[in-house]
Amino acid sequence: MYFIGMAKTPIHTPLHQKNFVRFSEQIDAIKEPISAALGGVLSYEEHGDSYISAKIFNDQLKNISQHEIDNAHIFLYHYSNKLKRLKEELMNDTVLNESQKKILLNIIQWNILRSLLLHYAVYIEAEKWGYRLNPEKKQDCLQKIEKIETIIYGPKISTQTEEKKIIMSDLERLFSQNSHKLTKDDQHTFENFLKKFPERNPPKKSKEQERDLWELSLMDICYLFQKVANIYAIPNKIVIIDDTIDKEKEENNILYIPRAYDQQKTKQIYNNHHIDTTVKIIVSPRVAGFGVQRYVIDIPTSRTHISIKRLCELIDHEISTHLIRTINQKNTINIKTEGYLETEEWIATMNEKLATQKKDELEMDVPTLHNISTFIGENYDFDMTKKLMKIYYRLQDISETESESLSKKRALRVKRFHAFDQPWASRKDVVYRRWLVDAISYIKDLDKDKQEDLQTLEKDIFTFYMSKLGKEEIKNADQLFEGFAIDKGDVIMPIALGKLIYEKLLGNPIDPIGDIRFLSSQQQLDYPQKKLLLEIISFIKDRSTPQ
């Protein structure tokens, strides 16, 4: 069994823990140079009809020759060899138990597999920049990529009947409601697409439109995010990325940074203001999100106001999941295991849904944008994927200009490591919804009357928040942390603040049966936390605009 240290900092770090962390850090150090290409979204430098990925090739290249491809493969060869040598060292280790070795070996094996994926993807990405790829070689690469992606991310959506039905049912509904917003040509294009995939789920009765509470300005949202961070005693700072200024400035405790500044210049400003490790609440045109390495919470400026419902969802997704877990990782055992991101995203999304819904209301009968775009990309080339995605955005009343930009970004995303001229798509983004379906099924089946189940759940939640662990490691936590000293005092446990705010604004008491977070742990706030929560409630009531 792993044990909990009583002191704030353990006096002695056990050898098991030292070795496990050492191997973890060595794996991360090896992974770092290509982790962006393996796990992130490829950004492309565009020149006419050609695109180059700066994460794989130098974007200053005029053209890509076999020499550049060979250099990329030499790098990947050395990368794999480093992992294989570390694997051999790990297998000879006499301190770690078999479970700890198995977890680390699994991380190594997955990264060797991903390097193999990149080996073939290099050719496909080179072709996007004008490299002449032999047709036979191209098909061989695409088939190898398809097999490896199936191992890593699961089967194509096109082979999954239920996933297809959910996507097509939702798109049929959207088209029937909003087709009048399209041109005749776009109507015809989308109708042909719908006819190509006739699979549908029976139409559901439309739910009564829920009355939203209020809407708040973006600056008010930032202020409230600061207050929530204060409840957790987390240092924070509002940063506004501003298009209209050419020099940084600070007013009313808000730091303004010109958008023209590059990453290095921005980082230097953070250092100068002593906020390099502070949570930065960023106001920018991006979607809401959390930058794990940078402690950044992004607030989108695509709308001038955000609803209270959405605020509560963002609090429990971004702060009560991503931020808390990242801080704990730094404070306890600084490790990340295989599958941690997928696990974290479905927990974050579940927390988001529970902020404004009850457990029994949770459903996954609506597809995500990731699923829709991936399915389209699996069946169409780049140009047609982009066209259909643009129509999809227009059906959602997004402007012509923004739809054009979003559709190109989305098409580039789903064609990551896949040819522009063929119906293939990356399935990296699909795994989050698939894991969430499993999570919802699990919590709906949870028996609140079984004390043993609740104790297991409470332990699993604590283990989840302790560090960046995947679901397999959480399940095998006793073996993973055998011989570890973990200080429970260093672990921040989340409070369902979004849920508390939402229910108090509605005047509703919390129903613990409807939210597993209240079933599994006592959501007790001390006096200063309660005072801050009441300030948040009062602020919303005073500043918001009733809808």
Topology:
Layout: E1 3-5, H1 15-39, E2 44-47, E3 50-53, H2 66-91, H3 98-127, H4 135-153, H5 161-178, H6 184-196, E4 214-217, H7 218-231, E5 236-242, E6 249-251, E7 254-258, H8 263-272, E8 279-284, E9 289-291, E10 296-300, E11 305-307, H9 308-331, H10 340-356, H11 369-379, H12 382-395, H13 400-414, H14 431-444, H15 451-466, H16 471-475, H17 477-480, E12 485-487, H18 497-506, H19 516-520, H20 527-543, E13 545-546
Parallel strand pairs: 1-12, 5-7, 5-8, 8-10
Antiparallel strand pairs: 2-3, 4-11, 4-13, 6-7, 9-10
Helix pairs in contact: 1-2, 1-3, 2-3, 3-4, 7-20, 9-10, 9-18, 10-14, 10-18, 11-12, 12-13, 18-20
How would you summarize this macromolecular structure in one to three sentences?
With 547 residues, the chain is α/β, with parallel strands linked by helices. Helices cover 56% and strands 10% of the residues.
Overview of the molecule:
The protein has 20 helices and 13 strands. Helix content is 56%, strand content 10%. Helix 9 runs antiparallel to helix 10 (340-356). The strands form four sheets. The protein has a six-stranded mixed β-sheet with strand order 6-7-5-8-10-9, covered by helices on one side. A three-stranded antiparallel β-sheet has the order 11-4-13. It has a two-stranded parallel sheet with strand order 1-12. It has helices at 15-39, 66-91, 98-127, 135-153, 161-178, 184-196, 218-231, 263-272, 308-331, 340-356, 369-379, 382-395, 400-414, 431-444, 451-466, 471-475, 477-480, 497-506, 516-520, 527-543, and strands spanning 3-5, 44-47, 50-53, 214-217, 236-242, 249-251, 254-258, 279-284, 289-291, 296-300, 305-307, 485-487, 545-546.
